[in-house]
């Protein structure tokens, strides 16, 4: 058996074990996805703002990856589990109810946590991170609610 055949066989087995694991533990699949999607969106935003490969803020992208993978994915997974338990039907009325309740409960918590954590991950103090929330939460929440 050639080296390439062995590698392909090993990769197939590893991939099979990985997909089996993430099917049994969907929160892990979400965490891995968000750990990739959030920094990608950060880099896209920086590109739109005129940055290039040479001057991207890679630490900011890392902060987005950590926050997306270690906070957003698990909390969103928990919210979806709770909302599915509270409203198990799959009707349009239930979907609208879930969306409204999410906007009034999970949304404000998620925004506050985002502003706090991203500021704190910059190695700012707890007081500075708290000020960031106080400064940005209400204007952001108003824009969010006006879009509904």
From TrEMBL:
Name of the featured protein: Peroxisomal membrane protein 2 pxmp2 mpv17
Source organism (scientific name): Holotrichia oblita
Phylogenetic lineage: Eukaryota, Metazoa, Ecdysozoa, Arthropoda, Hexapoda
């Amino acid at each position: 058996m050639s080296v390439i055949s062995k590698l392909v066989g090993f990769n197939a087995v590893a991939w099979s074990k990985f997909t089996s694991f993430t099917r049994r533990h969907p929160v892990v699949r979400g965490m891995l996805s968000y750990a990739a999607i959030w920094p990608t969106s950060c880099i896209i935003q920086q590109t739109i703002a005129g940055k290039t490969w040479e001057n991207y803020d890679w630490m900011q992208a890392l902060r987005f990856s950590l926050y997306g993978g270690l906070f957003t994915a698990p909390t969103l997974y928990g919210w979806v589990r709770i909302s599915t338990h509270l409203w198990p039907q799959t009707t349009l009325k239930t979907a609208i109810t879930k969306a409204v309740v999410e906007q009034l409960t999970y949304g404000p918590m998620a925004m506050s946590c985002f502003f706090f954590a991203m500021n704190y991950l910059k190695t700012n103090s707890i007081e500075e991170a708290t000020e960031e929330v106080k400064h940005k939460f209400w204007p952001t929440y108003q824009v969010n609610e006006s879009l509904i």
